[in-house]
Design brief:
This protein is mainly beta and 351 residues long. The chain has 2 helices and 26 strands. Strands 9, 10, 11, 12 and 13 form a 5-stranded antiparallel β-sheet that branches. Strands 18, 19, 20, 21 and 22 form a 5-stranded antiparallel β-sheet that branches. It has a 4-stranded antiparallel β-sheet with strand order 1-2-3-4, with no helix packed on it. Helix 1 runs antiparallel to helix 2 (336-350).
Amino acid sequence: MKRELTISFILILLFSVPVYASDFPGPLMSHKMVFMGDEIFMFGGMNETGSSSWTDYIQDDFYKFDSEWTKLENGPGPRFDHNMEATDDSIYVFGGVTPNGRTNDLWKYTDNWIEVNTDLLPPKRSSGGFVYDDLNNRLILFGGYGENDIKLDDTWAFYLDNSSWVELKPETHPSKRYGLSLVSDTNLDVAILFGGNDVDTGGKKNDLWIFDMTTDIWEELQISNPAPRYWHLAAHNSVDHEMVIFGGDVSTSGIMDDTWKFDYMVKTWVEITSSGPEPRDAGAMVFDGENWVLYGGYNDGGILNDMWSLQDDVWQMLGQESSDQETPLHAFSPTVGLAVLVLLRQFRKNR
């Protein structure tokens, strides 16, 4: 008993040592995160609002997180609301809003950033959906906010083997929208789309669509869904076939802090009631193999700079930048904070 308590106490001390991350990214909104290998990568976004020179605040910063934040080389040019996805060994960025407006350039990162030049390109856009289809080794792009306030409902595939874009043109597809979430289940070869916004076709949406990678067919699931919203955060666990969404700008309630989990196998939603991050939209979230990890976003209080982890339906704050750069990350990885809680519970039980 004493030996077990001693080991638990040592582990608690070890993993409770604050980790001060000198490269902590700071306040960000409309940025993107992906998980590749054993690391989280984050690129772009905005860090200020309310200025006449808003273009000065578009970010080109590129970070990775593996127990702490590290700033890497700059990205492929400042942008926000871009599309970003990871394959097994590379990160791709398409489009977004730059200081010169919306774009449709495509960039690849393996060890450094390289622009991928192709003869055919999808129209310029931001705030669309972008996922990896490992069955066909391609990236799937849907919708977004185009030039001249045009909302898009097109579906494109970028084939990695020959670096070419093809418009798929399915007969049935989701309506025009931006600020949607699109995640992929790589084990079931499907992509899952939820929500979005288009003032021309009814505003905020809460429809749920499945894109079958084997047939290139969209199908709407006629089930009861969470309230309509856009610019919500979303990520997917392909092992358990679950998607989690958080917050967003919700139909009648403004910016929210609700958390929902969708189980693809049984086609049902469950609300997660754990207290957690404050309300936000335009943040970023990924699944890192064990947890859903959330960073930043925006609400009426401004741009946010906090980092959270959701594991076993419990939210835990991992860190937050302070003005003096001394607010610690209380964990070496997104899972350690919860491990500490487990050890504490075990200590109290044995006591």
